[in-house]
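Worked example 4.2. Below are the chains of a multi-component assembly; read each line carefully before continuing.
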Amino acid sequence: MMRSLRITLILTGKQLRVLSRMPGILLVIFVPGIVMYTVFTKIFEGPAGRPFKVAVVDSDDSTESRKLIEALEKSNVNVIRTANGNGRPLTENDARRGIRDNGKYRVALVIPQGFSRAPNVMSGDSHEGVQLIYDETQSMEADAVLGMIQMAAGRRLFQKFSALQQGLSLNRADEPSKDTPSMLIRVQKVGISIQRMKIAAKHTFLAGIVPMFLLFGAAGAARGMIEEIDSGEIARLRTAPISPANILGGQLLSMLLVAMLQCYSMYIFAWLLFGVAIWQITGGLFLMTLVTTMATTAFGMLLGAICRTTQQLDSIGTIVILAMSAIGGSMVPRWIMPEFMQTLGLFTINGWSYDGFIALIRNEGIGLHAWIQNDEIRGIWLPCVVLVLSAVACASLGSLLLGRRLRAGPA
Amino acid sequence: MPLLEVTHLQKSYGPLKAVDGVSFSIDPGEIFGLLGPNGAGKSTTINMIATLLKPDAGQVVLNGNLRSTSPQYKRALGYVPQNISLAEKLTAKENLKLIGRLYDLNRPALDKRVNETLEAVGLTDRSDDLVSKFSGGMKRRLNIGAALLHEPDLLLMDEPTAGVDPQARAYIFEIVESLAQRGRSILYTTHYMEEAERLCQRTAIIDHGKILAMGTLAELTLIVKARHDLVIEAQGLTEDKLTRLADKLDRVPWTLHNDSAHLHVAGTDHTLLNAARAADEIGLQPTSIRVLEPNLEHVFLELTGRALRD
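Applying the procedure described above to all two chains together yields the following structure tokens:
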């Protein structure tokens, strides 16, 4: 047993040393994923400050409420006041539905009836304030709107004060006073936890691109395996006093370690450049990474076992991986896809990996320590189980086919 | 007691019998050749002995009692595959160390064996170079070294000179001869009769999966002693003249290449005299007539009716 483990580690070390001397391959393994992730995230994230939709429910319909809305319109947001452009004012239900069901709006501002009677905190206890309803995953945008509201209130207050001063023949600067209270309008923030929410580009593409590039990496490793079979390297190993399991184990373990390294290089990049909160989910992230790399590594081995030549692998592998990636959410976020495509995506490693990562990022999955303590692994347990089963199935079938090929004799 | 005993080995691929009842034995310290054209069954036989292929029937016994399923069997074998089966991105030394560790060699014995092996194959000064930077011949030598590292009882060499230049081939011959001097037992497959003649104490001629003849060079050439290749060189040698000459020598088969003709004649004491007389009768004035000593090529031709390279 110990000897078997030692031999497997020797062969793993050999594979890693060989890989370390192939800078071109290393570049292909590590760089394109990061580049693709950056490009997609930047495209879908959009330029900073691009206007976003804010639904406004004006139940007060007063000068004060209209002034507030006008101020918002002058800020960098698209204010939507009517439902479907039919002229009917939005209701709170419309706004909630727009956020919850289809991500039509990111934030909704609800101005209650009677707002004008006490439009700010200066009005005393009768000030009711406004309500800000938002998608919980988009809290930054809600905070931006909150800032805009306070700014607008400040300006409004300053205008009133200014008019009063002019009446008293005083001449003051055009800017709001530094003494203006930081919260002029009381805002009640209401976050909506929704099932089918829009997910930030930096998360959705990390979840999608990781499995895609893991699969490409695994296909590259499978290519190396075919080359070793063709060159007779494997045949020589088979004449040594070691078992086929050692040879296969060495291959798989080295592939797995490289894949894990590939993932973590992308996570760290995502953290550094886009601030993806990887350190808050370390346990769950490790678990998801492990099961995803197991599944992709085993799938790579299966590809290597099915394809008899490197040419076959290059063409079949690329087509299969691209198809899996397209269906499984690596290119287009799964939440955008129609129901049928989302179901189809569950037949791919990418789809389950995507769902697991997203669940994790949405904090449905939790750190391993908490999992052990709370006996709970909501959100990522099903993807984990499915990915492990996929790994076992692919590895079993792959080793069966490889064994058959090797028993047929050296190339 | 023979070192290796192969009995009635069989292997089929569908309807094709690649190896059909092959039996032979190798004595300790002997270099035994398997000579045959491509597709004769040499590699299939050696791969079955090396445990890379499972025989359909027959058995292989090493050192009197080791079967291929025995854990000690693989340790007693060293396999030199036809392809260069080395990690190109590892150095010569790293490749050998890797193989050594798989045979449970540890430091300092491993370092000692690695250095000895590199010296034996003449690669000491290139030990830290990547294999990818080696010439074809150097790779071949290291390929042999990798099989020698653990000092096996029997070395299996599957066409070790395939695709190498004459200089590299000569170097490989020297390595094999040096191993022979040190009493190493080798099973050597080749389709070059010169290699079998030069290196092997005994040779089995194999074709279509069957051993046709087996013995020392002297024993094998006895098979064709009755016939010789007669080489006649003459200016103005034409097919017409050669046909007439062959007719006078009992219509023997012939081949013509420029001014040199090969006639496959019955070997008698008067072969040369008869040929000279016949040439004179048809007005041919040879510049030389000589009888070629029979070799394994002739033996193969005699046994199969075709040349080794066909």
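Take a moment to check your reading of the output against the notes. Chain A has 14 helices and five strands. The domain at 48-192 of chain A is CATH 3.40.1710 (abc type-2 transporter like fold).
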